[in-house]
Amino acid sequence: MAPVPPPLPWSVRVQPERTLLLCTGALAVLGGAWCLVSALGVSPWPCVWKSCTSWPCAGCGATRAVILLFSGHVADAWAMNPGAVLLVPILGALSAYAALVLALRREPWRPAWLQRVPWRAALLLAVLGNWIYLLVSGRA
After folding, report:
1. Burial 30-63, CB ≥16 within 10 A → b, else e
2. pTM metric for this prediction
3. Which of 40, 91, 124, 130 has a CB 3.0–4.6 Å from the CB of 83, allowing a cystine?
């Protein structure tokens, strides 16, 4: 029987949590700056996709939806871009989990059933569904 290799060090096992925190932190800083500039009435630059095709991109209305969401207008934010409205609490919860794992030096939660979910396909379907909503609604 082959010997069992030793487990990976903790710092390697929590690499996905570190990456998640780094990416969501950068997204929060950049998104916050973008929302602040947009809320002040300054348009940083137009959407290249919409300028070229006249169709909304998959993220069209996300900035306005996040501003509406944080202003307490949840229904209006949902109508503007439901994908952005769902993404904010999901990323917040995942970031809180990752921060707790790293701060408390706990083992990351990796259930076997979660590893069997086809995440790439689910994410692609979610983005396509949100984009179809934006195309059909004409709100963005």
Report:
1. ebeeebeeeeeeeeeeeeeeeeeeeebebbbbbb
2. 0.79
3. 130
Question: Is the pLDDT assigned to residue 131 strictly greater than 80?
Answer: yes
Contact between 44 and 38 under an 8 Å Cβ cutoff? The reply is yes
**Dihedral sign for Cα atoms in the order 50, 92, 32, 120:** negative
How many other C-beta atoms are found inside a 10 Å radius of the C-beta of residue 99? 15
Q: Tell me the three state secondary structure of residue 94.
A: helix
> What is the token pair recorded at 139?
């709100």
If you ran DSSP here, which 8-state letter would residue 116 be given? T
Sign of the Cα torsion 37, 38, 42, 44 reads: positive
Mean pLDDT of the chain: 88
* Cα(27)–Cα(85) distance, integer angstroms: 15
Amino acid at 87: L
